[in-house]
Design brief:
Helices cover 42% and strands 16% of the residues. The protein has 172 residues and is an alpha/beta fold. The chain has a single domain, classed as HUPs (Rossmann fold, 3-Layer(aba) Sandwich). A 5-stranded parallel sheet has the order 3-2-1-4-5, with helices on both faces. Strand 2 (53-59), helix 2 (70-97) and strand 3 (104-108) form a beta-alpha-beta unit. The longest helix has 28 residues, at 70-97. It is globular.
């Protein structure tokens, strides 16, 4: 007899009977930076070697909700959306030029970057999130905050943080 999924059942994030080690969906989070490009190359290799579907997400910056002039806020929001779409389109072009295949490109707005990445990973049933990091250590990271750190703490699945190998600050 064939299997049918109950309404609302989640996708399996891993290949096989649930005991497999390869994710079926990999989510690459990008902001267009060189660190994100390094993460993209890693995600391409992982998706190719495991036969996983590669999803890419760019999360646009948001405009403060306490805007005084509504017209200005709407215009600025559209500019931010366009900027984020350009980042996403450019990352997809780079992935395809490197021989990778993007299953779905996602644009998220109106949510903090870390929250948007974690929520999308849950929505698509990602088995792995790949994200770049600037490699800040210690006090600098504590003062500036870090999207990758927050994603690691809140994600339902493993997170691979790709850091640069040169020019990073010391951990303490």
């Amino acid at each position: 007899m064939g299997e049918s999924r109950a309404a609302g059942a989640q996708r399996k994030p891993w290949k096989g009977d649930g005991l497999g080690i390869f994710p079926t969906h990999i989510l690459l989070a990008t902001d267009g930076s060189e660190h994100a490009n390094l993460a993209a190359m890693t995600a391409i290799d992982l998706a190719r070697s495991t036969g996983s579907r590669l999803h890419v997400v760019a999360v646009g910056r948001t405009f403060p909700t306490s805007a005084i002039y509504k017209v200005y806020a709407e215009e600025a929001s559209e500019d931010l959306r366009r900027e984020a779409q350009e980042v996403l389109d450019e990352q997809v072009r780079k992935i395809e030029a490197a021989g990778g295949t993007v299953a779905i490109a996602h644009l998220k707005m109106d949510e903090r970057r870390d929250e948007a990445i974690v929520h999308l990973a849950e929505d698509i049933g990602a088995g792995l999130i790949v994200i770049g990091s600037r490699g800040f250590g210690g006090m600098k990271r504590a003062l500036m905050g870090n999207v990758a750190d927050s994603v690691v703490r809140h994600a339902h699945c493993p997170v691979l943080v790709v850091r640069p190998t040169r020019g990073v600050s010391r951990p303490f």
